[in-house]
Amino acid sequence: MNNINAILYGVVLVLYFRVLRYMFSGSKKWTFMDKFMMAFSTVLVILNTIFWTTQSYFGEMMWIVHSDYPGGADAYWIDFGSVWYQTWGMAACVVCNLMNDAFLVYRCFVIWNSRRIIIFPGVLWLASLAFSIGLLYESGRPDGNYFAGIATIFVTAYTASTFAFNVVVTSLIIARILYIGRRLAFADEFKVYIGAVAIMIESALPFTVFSAAYLVTYAMGSDISIGFSFYAMFTCISPLLITLRVLSRRAWTRDSSNLFTTTISYTGATDFVTNMGAAHADDYDADPEKEGTTSKLPDLEAGRPGMEVSDPHSISIVSIDIADESSPV
What we know:
Shape: globular
Structural class: mainly alpha
Strand order of the largest sheet: 1-6
Radius of gyration: 26 Å
Number of strands: 6
Number of helices: 11
Order of helices and strands: HHHHHHHHHHHEEEEEE
């Protein structure tokens, strides 16, 4: 377990230094979201470092320094499982997880662009917060044991609520991206928002999958659950991956969500539609050699070059309700 955690901690450091590189390379102006993501990532890495170092140190003390402890490793865990630095590391992991979940609630809001959609995930997050307090108290008090007594009830409840939260939020994000993806399948330039990589990163899918494996094995009382406890490292890895997409301007934003779902309604005859409404072929001539005309249409995304077209009658846009004068609006 410690070896897997060490490898994943190396992944955390690589991702974090890539975040620093994005932030401090070049002369681009930092936005508020850039600054927030930088601070958020830094706090997550610090918490993850505390968790990994305390777990590694406890493992060293249990397996190496006190390898001859009477009763073996199990007895050592029972006697020293609530030592202060072990509780400190567990608290860092729980706070990191809660921060990651809160961030996913925000990302779900961004992708759906709706406050109502995050009400139920918000309730599940509050439940996770309540169970986490009981978990830390019962496992951290004198003679407390993470794997025995009433602490196991809080551990199971906390893990289950966290798992339910991630299943709900992950499903919502994936469903939204797939729904938009079906409507934008004709445009290669939108693949960065709707591709497999976007689905996996934006929804924090690896964390959900590994936490499910841990919950099932832990609830069954299997020792295999220890092998899946590395899922906690993804509470830092998943947000860092999203941060990299945000800084590279490839992540979903509220503007892109509005862009993909905006409905344009108009009446009258027209040749094609742009993000500014109806347009006629005479307004945008496809012949670049003809004086006073252009072969570029206004793009759907501000600040980017226009789309080259060969036939202005072939331009289409997603989510458009068209009504001419002879049909009801």
